[in-house]
Amino acid sequence: MASNQVIAATLVIFFTLLLQGNNNNVVEAQLTTNFYSTSCPNVLSTVQSAVRSAVKSEARMGASILRLFFHDCFVNGCDGSILLDDTSSFTGEQNAAPNRNSARGFNVIDNIKSAVEKACPGVVSCADILAIAARDSVVALGGPNWNVKVGRRDARTASQAAANSNIPPPTSSLSQLISSFSAVGLSTRDMVALSGAHTIGQAACRTFRPRIYNETNINAAFATTRQRTCPRATGSGDGNLAPLDVATPASFDNNYFKNLMTQKGLLHSDQELFNGGSTDSIVRGYSTNPRSFNSDFTAAMIKMGDISPLTGSSGEIRKVCGTTN
Ligand code: HEM
Ligand SMILES: *[C@@H]1O[C@H](CO)[C@@H](O)[C@H](O)[C@H]1NC(C)=O
To answer: Does residue 268 carry a catalytic annotation?
Structure first.
């Protein structure tokens, strides 16, 4: 009798833990690192060499591809939806506010896809090509390496409305940043680590103008320098670019966090991570310990890549990334 009760209690605990294990928004998907190892054994080397040559001709392209992956995953999961081009009868995500005049790198992904299609037609999804290319971009700029989980399929739809509401704008407060990441199952620590992606790439004047003219938690000399190529008046120089990491914009390193500690974050949202709030200690930690940043960043990239993938017979394997089959 007593031992039956022990067994019953053990089963209750077991199933409770099992249910809790699935109780978050990052779906435990069937993605694996070896999904294409027999169906398309050269996919990794094909993507890697294309990314290397794209980054060699323009370092910023690595940043642009990394950002595309983030903007894909935050909008109904990592399903290649951002890659779908608008047509007269289809409105996708590319003209949503966070992407319009800003998201770039589509040609690189399209060209990789056609090279992969030649070797293994109809096998590798655009969503997976983007995930692999994002990793290769980080590595090509000197950042950490990790094994990319694959097996995603491509969406047949996209959502401009979801892109507008799910991708956080640079005007976000710390609590808004925390909640937009939490909405897709990512922790505050994941959010800070992933923001370290701003160690590479560029931002347009329109995204940081209010910060360099109106904010007080900014290094004065840094603000003056940025004002030189970003005029105060809306409509002039809106697209002028400045590096997100003032120190080493083409190297994937932890200087982004060091910049935040000297009030040289370019975006309002960047400086929110070190502005007297709960994430100050995380920023301080990453600024002194690049290995802890690298390991948290890679873990968070894998977690972001697990957001709601299409698997099994959901979605499709697109023939070209810009349009559904
Ligand atoms: C935490 C919230 C985030 C906000 C508010 C944000 C906002 C922005 C903005 C406004 C830009 C400049 C866009 C432009 O002017 O064209 C930018 C660029 C960029 N973002 Fe973020 N971002 C965030 C998180 C992330 C994450 C999680 C990643 C990737 C893991 C990422 C990767 C990048 C990269 C690499 C660039 C440079 C792109 C290029 O040079 O083409 N960002 N971001
Ligand atoms: C600075 O703030 C003032 C007052 O809110 C506003 O009118 C002005 O447009 C802002 N300037 C910039 C460059 O954001």
So the answer is: no
